[in-house]
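call fold(seq) -> tokens
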Amino acid sequence: MLDWVIASDQIPVVAPVASGSDGATTYNVNADTFAGAIAGAVGAKRLLLLTDVPGVLDKNKNLIDQLSIEEARRLIADGTITAGMIPKVETCIYAVERGVEGVVILDGKTPHAVLIELLTEGGAGTLITR
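ret:
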């Protein structure tokens, strides 16, 4: 179905809800996880994850502009990336491993964050790539 929508030059809008094996139970799926899986499945070039922080922060709370998968895993292991940022970064890794060229985590509260990310050299958040 998603392939058909994309082939029709439409922008798909999906809700992160999944049904259980019994067909009656529904589950709220983490929206970032859902988006990462879709991006990987459709061969997206870039995925933007909007959140309420500037991106991935180092131990001094400074923005990290870019990370490789290896660096991201190391920062999870050493405790730099914590709490709710862990599933976001794991989603980034998942999507990149499935062919997405890069995933950006950026602050959706920042005015024009998406435009800054897409139209400037420096971007607006943390870019995670292979």
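The chain has one domain: 2-129.
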